[in-house]
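Entry for the shared binder. Reason: the reviewer on the internal report wants the predicted structure included alongside the sequence.
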Amino acid sequence: MAKIYGFGNALIDIEVSISEEELRALNIKKGSMVHISSEQQKIWLSQFKNKILSKEPGGSIANSLQAASTQGSICLFSCSLGKDQENNIFMEGFSENSFEVFHQNSANPTGVCFIFVTPDGERTMASNLSANEDLKPNCLNLEELSKSDWLLFDAFSVCTPNGLKTAKEALRVAKQNKLKIAFGLADINLIQTNLTEIKWVLGESIDLLFGNKKEINLLNENIKPNCDVLCSYGANGCRYNQIQVKAEEVSIVNTNGAGDALIGVFLSHLDSLDNERALREAVIYATKVCLVGGPRL
Protein backbone atom coordinates (compact mmCIF):
# COMPACT_ATOMS: atom_id res chain seq x y z
CA MET A 1 0.00 0.00 0.00
CA ALA A 2 0.99 3.63 -0.49
CA LYS A 3 2.96 5.70 2.00
CA ILE A 4 1.11 9.01 2.17
CA TYR A 5 2.43 12.21 3.74
CA GLY A 6 -0.07 14.98 4.38
CA PHE A 7 -0.16 18.35 6.09
CA GLY A 8 -3.05 20.60 6.97
CA ASN A 9 -5.42 21.96 9.57
CA ALA A 10 -5.74 20.07 12.84
CA LEU A 11 -9.20 20.74 14.25
CA ILE A 12 -11.55 19.58 16.94
CA ASP A 13 -14.83 18.99 15.12
CA ILE A 14 -17.87 20.04 17.14
CA GLU A 15 -20.93 18.50 15.52
CA VAL A 16 -24.15 20.36 16.19
CA SER A 17 -27.67 19.20 15.29
CA ILE A 18 -29.45 22.20 13.80
CA SER A 19 -32.71 22.94 11.99
CA GLU A 20 -32.88 24.58 8.57
CA GLU A 21 -34.32 27.68 10.21
CA GLU A 22 -31.50 27.87 12.77
CA LEU A 23 -28.92 27.48 10.00
CA ARG A 24 -30.45 30.32 7.99
CA ALA A 25 -30.25 32.53 11.10
CA LEU A 26 -26.47 31.97 11.19
CA ASN A 27 -26.18 33.52 7.73
CA ILE A 28 -23.90 30.78 6.38
CA LYS A 29 -24.62 29.31 2.96
CA LYS A 30 -25.69 25.70 3.40
CA GLY A 31 -22.95 23.22 2.55
CA SER A 32 -20.18 25.82 2.61
CA MET A 33 -17.38 26.74 5.04
CA VAL A 34 -16.61 30.07 6.72
CA HIS A 35 -13.93 31.28 9.11
CA ILE A 36 -14.98 32.65 12.49
CA SER A 37 -13.32 34.52 15.35
CA SER A 38 -12.57 33.20 18.83
CA GLU A 39 -15.35 35.43 20.14
CA GLN A 40 -17.89 33.89 17.75
CA GLN A 41 -16.68 30.45 18.81
CA LYS A 42 -17.44 31.28 22.46
CA ILE A 43 -20.91 32.58 21.57
CA TRP A 44 -21.85 29.46 19.62
CA LEU A 45 -20.45 27.09 22.23
CA SER A 46 -22.85 28.68 24.69
CA GLN A 47 -25.75 28.99 22.25
CA PHE A 48 -25.62 25.36 21.06
CA LYS A 49 -24.32 23.60 24.18
CA ASN A 50 -27.45 21.41 24.35
CA LYS A 51 -27.32 20.53 20.65
CA ILE A 52 -23.75 19.23 20.46
CA LEU A 53 -23.69 15.68 19.08
CA SER A 54 -19.97 15.02 19.46
CA LYS A 55 -16.49 16.51 19.77
CA GLU A 56 -13.88 14.64 17.76
CA PRO A 57 -10.44 15.36 16.32
CA GLY A 58 -10.58 16.12 12.64
CA GLY A 59 -9.46 18.29 9.77
CA SER A 60 -9.87 17.20 6.16
CA ILE A 61 -6.37 15.87 5.47
CA ALA A 62 -6.15 14.14 8.87
CA ASN A 63 -9.48 12.43 8.16
CA SER A 64 -8.27 11.36 4.71
CA LEU A 65 -5.08 9.87 6.12
CA GLN A 66 -6.99 8.02 8.83
CA ALA A 67 -9.21 6.44 6.17
CA ALA A 68 -6.14 5.48 4.13
CA SER A 69 -4.53 3.93 7.21
CA THR A 70 -7.52 1.60 7.63
CA GLN A 71 -6.68 0.19 4.19
CA GLY A 72 -3.10 -0.65 5.17
CA SER A 73 -1.30 2.52 4.05
CA ILE A 74 1.38 4.11 6.20
CA CYS A 75 0.24 7.69 6.83
CA LEU A 76 2.07 10.71 8.25
CA PHE A 77 0.58 14.09 9.09
CA SER A 78 2.08 17.48 9.95
CA CYS A 79 0.13 20.18 11.79
CA SER A 80 0.16 22.89 14.44
CA LEU A 81 -1.59 22.42 17.81
CA GLY A 82 -2.14 24.51 20.92
CA LYS A 83 -0.73 23.64 24.32
CA ASP A 84 -4.13 22.61 25.66
CA GLN A 85 -6.46 19.72 26.37
CA GLU A 86 -7.60 19.74 22.74
CA ASN A 87 -4.01 18.92 21.76
CA ASN A 88 -4.31 15.69 23.78
CA ILE A 89 -7.71 14.93 22.28
CA PHE A 90 -6.30 15.31 18.77
CA MET A 91 -3.21 13.18 19.37
CA GLU A 92 -5.20 10.43 21.10
CA GLY A 93 -7.73 10.41 18.26
CA PHE A 94 -5.08 9.61 15.66
CA SER A 95 -2.96 7.12 17.53
CA GLU A 96 -3.18 4.12 15.15
CA ASN A 97 0.09 2.27 14.53
CA SER A 98 0.12 3.19 10.84
CA PHE A 99 -0.70 6.88 11.46
CA GLU A 100 2.02 9.19 12.81
CA VAL A 101 1.53 12.87 13.67
CA PHE A 102 4.33 15.44 13.61
CA HIS A 103 3.32 18.73 15.19
CA GLN A 104 4.62 22.02 16.47
CA ASN A 105 3.07 23.70 19.51
CA SER A 106 1.50 27.12 19.01
CA ALA A 107 0.85 29.83 21.59
CA ASN A 108 -2.71 29.91 20.21
CA PRO A 109 -5.39 27.34 21.15
CA THR A 110 -5.98 24.25 19.01
CA GLY A 111 -8.31 25.02 16.13
CA VAL A 112 -12.03 24.25 16.25
CA CYS A 113 -14.57 23.58 13.51
CA PHE A 114 -18.33 23.68 14.04
CA ILE A 115 -20.08 21.08 11.89
CA PHE A 116 -23.72 22.14 11.66
CA VAL A 117 -25.77 19.11 10.60
CA THR A 118 -29.28 19.68 9.25
CA PRO A 119 -32.00 16.98 9.23
CA ASP A 120 -31.06 15.94 5.66
CA GLY A 121 -27.54 15.03 6.82
CA GLU A 122 -25.86 17.93 5.01
CA ARG A 123 -23.01 19.62 6.87
CA THR A 124 -22.15 23.33 6.96
CA MET A 125 -18.84 24.31 8.55
CA ALA A 126 -17.45 27.25 10.51
CA SER A 127 -13.79 27.13 11.54
CA ASN A 128 -11.65 29.08 13.97
CA LEU A 129 -8.17 28.22 12.66
CA SER A 130 -6.28 29.60 15.67
CA ALA A 131 -3.16 27.40 16.10
CA ASN A 132 -3.41 26.33 12.45
CA GLU A 133 -2.27 29.80 11.42
CA ASP A 134 1.12 28.76 12.81
CA LEU A 135 1.44 25.79 10.43
CA LYS A 136 4.99 26.45 9.16
CA PRO A 137 7.62 24.58 7.12
CA ASN A 138 9.37 23.41 10.30
CA CYS A 139 6.25 21.34 11.08
CA LEU A 140 7.31 19.04 8.23
CA ASN A 141 9.43 15.95 8.76
CA LEU A 142 11.44 16.33 5.56
CA GLU A 143 13.15 12.95 5.86
CA GLU A 144 9.84 11.06 6.08
CA LEU A 145 8.32 13.22 3.36
CA SER A 146 11.20 12.48 0.99
CA LYS A 147 10.65 8.71 1.43
CA SER A 148 6.88 8.79 0.80
CA ASP A 149 4.89 7.86 -2.31
CA TRP A 150 2.32 10.66 -2.17
CA LEU A 151 2.12 14.21 -0.86
CA LEU A 152 -1.45 15.14 0.10
CA PHE A 153 -2.73 18.63 0.98
CA ASP A 154 -5.64 20.93 0.18
CA ALA A 155 -6.77 24.51 -0.28
CA PHE A 156 -7.41 24.94 3.45
CA SER A 157 -3.64 24.85 3.92
CA VAL A 158 -2.75 27.62 1.47
CA CYS A 159 -5.21 30.26 2.73
CA THR A 160 -2.78 31.54 5.39
CA PRO A 161 0.69 33.03 4.72
CA ASN A 162 2.42 30.36 6.83
CA GLY A 163 0.40 27.59 5.21
CA LEU A 164 1.42 28.76 1.76
CA LYS A 165 5.09 28.73 2.81
CA THR A 166 4.61 25.19 4.09
CA ALA A 167 3.05 24.14 0.78
CA LYS A 168 5.98 25.60 -1.16
CA GLU A 169 8.52 23.73 0.95
CA ALA A 170 6.58 20.46 0.80
CA LEU A 171 6.21 20.74 -2.98
CA ARG A 172 9.93 21.43 -3.35
CA VAL A 173 10.85 18.27 -1.45
CA ALA A 174 8.15 16.22 -3.19
CA LYS A 175 9.37 17.17 -6.65
CA GLN A 176 13.00 16.68 -5.70
CA ASN A 177 12.22 13.11 -4.59
CA LYS A 178 9.71 12.34 -7.37
CA LEU A 179 6.64 11.93 -5.14
CA LYS A 180 3.17 12.03 -6.67
CA ILE A 181 1.18 15.06 -5.54
CA ALA A 182 -2.54 15.18 -4.70
CA PHE A 183 -4.32 18.49 -4.03
CA GLY A 184 -7.90 19.08 -2.87
CA LEU A 185 -10.03 22.12 -3.62
CA ALA A 186 -11.81 21.85 -0.25
CA ASP A 187 -14.57 24.49 -0.55
CA ILE A 188 -15.92 26.73 -3.30
CA ASN A 189 -15.97 29.84 -1.06
CA LEU A 190 -12.34 29.20 -0.15
CA ILE A 191 -11.42 28.99 -3.85
CA GLN A 192 -13.02 32.33 -4.61
CA THR A 193 -11.24 34.13 -1.76
CA ASN A 194 -7.84 32.47 -2.35
CA LEU A 195 -7.88 32.15 -6.12
CA THR A 196 -4.33 33.43 -6.67
CA GLU A 197 -2.79 30.89 -4.28
CA ILE A 198 -4.84 27.98 -5.62
CA LYS A 199 -4.02 28.80 -9.24
CA TRP A 200 -0.36 28.85 -8.23
CA VAL A 201 -0.67 25.34 -6.79
CA LEU A 202 -2.38 24.10 -9.95
CA GLY A 203 0.57 25.39 -11.95
CA GLU A 204 3.00 23.25 -9.91
CA SER A 205 2.64 19.94 -11.81
CA ILE A 206 -0.03 18.41 -9.59
CA ASP A 207 -0.65 14.72 -10.39
CA LEU A 208 -4.15 14.44 -8.92
CA LEU A 209 -6.75 17.13 -8.26
CA PHE A 210 -9.86 16.32 -6.24
CA GLY A 211 -13.03 18.22 -5.39
CA ASN A 212 -16.75 18.31 -6.09
CA LYS A 213 -18.35 19.16 -9.42
CA LYS A 214 -18.80 22.90 -8.72
CA GLU A 215 -15.21 23.29 -7.52
CA ILE A 216 -13.74 21.41 -10.48
CA ASN A 217 -15.85 23.34 -12.99
CA LEU A 218 -14.82 26.67 -11.48
CA LEU A 219 -11.15 25.92 -12.12
CA ASN A 220 -11.49 23.82 -15.25
CA GLU A 221 -9.46 26.21 -17.41
CA ASN A 222 -6.55 26.06 -14.94
CA ILE A 223 -6.27 22.26 -14.79
CA LYS A 224 -3.31 20.99 -16.81
CA PRO A 225 -4.02 18.24 -19.41
CA ASN A 226 -1.75 15.71 -17.66
CA CYS A 227 -3.44 16.17 -14.25
CA ASP A 228 -5.79 13.37 -13.20
CA VAL A 229 -9.12 14.52 -11.74
CA LEU A 230 -11.20 12.89 -9.00
CA CYS A 231 -14.61 14.58 -9.01
CA SER A 232 -17.24 13.85 -6.36
CA TYR A 233 -20.94 13.98 -7.19
CA GLY A 234 -22.04 13.48 -3.59
CA ALA A 235 -24.85 10.94 -3.29
CA ASN A 236 -24.49 10.18 -7.03
CA GLY A 237 -20.99 8.77 -6.69
CA CYS A 238 -17.70 9.85 -8.18
CA ARG A 239 -15.70 10.17 -11.41
CA TYR A 240 -11.98 9.60 -11.93
CA ASN A 241 -11.05 10.96 -15.34
CA GLN A 242 -13.44 9.02 -17.61
CA ILE A 243 -14.36 6.32 -15.07
CA GLN A 244 -17.55 6.87 -13.07
CA VAL A 245 -18.89 4.82 -10.15
CA LYS A 246 -22.34 5.35 -8.69
CA ALA A 247 -22.95 5.29 -4.95
CA GLU A 248 -25.42 2.97 -3.29
CA GLU A 249 -28.62 4.69 -2.19
CA VAL A 250 -28.62 4.93 1.60
CA SER A 251 -30.37 6.86 4.35
CA ILE A 252 -27.75 9.51 5.06
CA VAL A 253 -27.07 10.33 8.69
CA ASN A 254 -24.27 12.84 8.15
CA THR A 255 -22.07 13.67 5.13
CA ASN A 256 -19.26 15.06 7.31
CA GLY A 257 -15.97 13.38 6.35
CA ALA A 258 -17.29 11.44 3.35
CA GLY A 259 -15.24 13.40 0.82
CA ASP A 260 -12.16 13.13 3.03
CA ALA A 261 -12.56 9.36 3.23
CA LEU A 262 -13.05 9.13 -0.53
CA ILE A 263 -9.65 10.57 -1.42
CA GLY A 264 -7.85 8.73 1.39
CA VAL A 265 -9.11 5.29 0.42
CA PHE A 266 -8.64 6.03 -3.29
CA LEU A 267 -4.98 7.00 -2.85
CA SER A 268 -4.41 3.96 -0.67
CA HIS A 269 -5.53 1.62 -3.47
CA LEU A 270 -4.60 3.57 -6.61
CA ASP A 271 -1.19 1.99 -7.11
CA SER A 272 -2.22 -1.56 -6.20
CA LEU A 273 -5.64 -1.95 -7.88
CA ASP A 274 -6.92 -0.98 -11.30
CA ASN A 275 -8.45 2.50 -11.41
CA GLU A 276 -12.08 1.39 -11.46
CA ARG A 277 -11.65 -1.01 -8.55
CA ALA A 278 -9.80 1.62 -6.51
CA LEU A 279 -12.59 4.12 -7.21
CA ARG A 280 -15.27 1.60 -6.29
CA GLU A 281 -13.57 0.79 -2.98
CA ALA A 282 -13.34 4.50 -2.19
CA VAL A 283 -17.03 5.15 -2.97
CA ILE A 284 -18.13 2.19 -0.86
CA TYR A 285 -16.08 3.41 2.10
CA ALA A 286 -17.26 7.02 1.75
CA THR A 287 -20.87 5.82 1.65
CA LYS A 288 -20.34 3.98 4.93
CA VAL A 289 -19.05 7.22 6.50
CA CYS A 290 -22.39 8.83 5.62
CA LEU A 291 -24.12 6.25 7.82
CA VAL A 292 -22.36 7.25 11.05
CA GLY A 293 -22.54 10.38 13.18
CA GLY A 294 -18.86 11.36 13.03
CA PRO A 295 -16.34 12.10 10.27
CA ARG A 296 -14.68 8.66 10.34
CA LEU A 297 -15.46 4.97 10.70
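Summary line for the report: The CA atoms of residues 258 and 286 lie 5 Å apart.
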